[in-house]
């Protein structure tokens, strides 16, 4: 991993469509990770945003905590979108980064999910997304993807 491109891979025993739905559907994204409901208009130029939970809003975060634009959508295989944190003015000033989600069905019947996050020019985000899990918040992509895997394979998140 570099400071500008970070790659995260995880194997999930679930079909590609179920993983796709878990990434792009607000009903699913509200169940794992930070539980922020995602909203994707799955066409080039479509909106990509995440909405704060009630607890996040009570802590002073805005209603929309992440915004971006869909650049490419090839369900259930590939999604590319821009991604910008709106947690603070400092985060917002880093501008948009780029995330590529790739779902590959293996010959063994499970899937490989690869998340490539281009964080060039966003050092705050680069540091945070590779962080370890913390009870105070944080955990980066490794924790989010592990929670997603747990939910899809067992029906329960890591905190359940």
Describe the secondary-structure layout.
Layout (H helix, E strand, L loop, with lengths): L4 E8 L3 H9 L1 H4 L7 E4 L6 E5 L2 H5 L5 E11 L3 E8 L3 H5 L3 E9 L5 E8 L4 H7 L10 H15 L6
Question: Could you characterize the architecture of this molecule?
Answer:
This protein is of the alpha+beta class. The protein has helices at residues 16-24, 26-29, 54-58, 89-93, 123-129, 140-154; strands spanning 5-12, 37-40, 47-51, 64-74, 78-85, 97-105, 111-118. The protein has a seven-stranded antiparallel β-sheet with strand order 1-7-6-5-4-3-2. A hairpin with a 6-residue loop joins strand 2 (37-40) and strand 3. The radius of gyration is 15 Å and the shape is globular. The N and C termini lie far apart (31 Å). 28% of the residues are buried. The mean pLDDT is 93.
């Amino acid at each position: 991993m570099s400071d500008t491109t970070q790659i995260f891979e995880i194997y999930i025993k679930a079909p590609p469509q179920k993983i796709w739905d878990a990434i792009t559907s607000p009903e699913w994204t509200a169940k794992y990770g930070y539980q922020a409901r995602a909203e994707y208009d799955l066409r080039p130029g479509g909106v990509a945003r995440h909405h704060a939970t009630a607890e996040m809003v009570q802590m002073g975060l805005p209603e929309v905590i992440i915004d971006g634009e869909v650049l490419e959508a090839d369900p259930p295989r590939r999604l590319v979108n821009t991604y910008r944190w709106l947690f603070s003015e400092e985060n917002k000033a880093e501008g948009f980064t780029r995330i590529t989600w790739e779902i590959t069905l293996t010959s063994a019947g499970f899937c490989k999910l690869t998340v490539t996050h281009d964080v060039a020019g966003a050092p705050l985000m680069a540091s945070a997304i590779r962080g370890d899990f913390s009870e105070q918040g944080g955990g980066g992509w490794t924790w989010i993807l592990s929670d997603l895997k747990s939910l899809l394979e067992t029906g329960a998140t890591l905190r359940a």
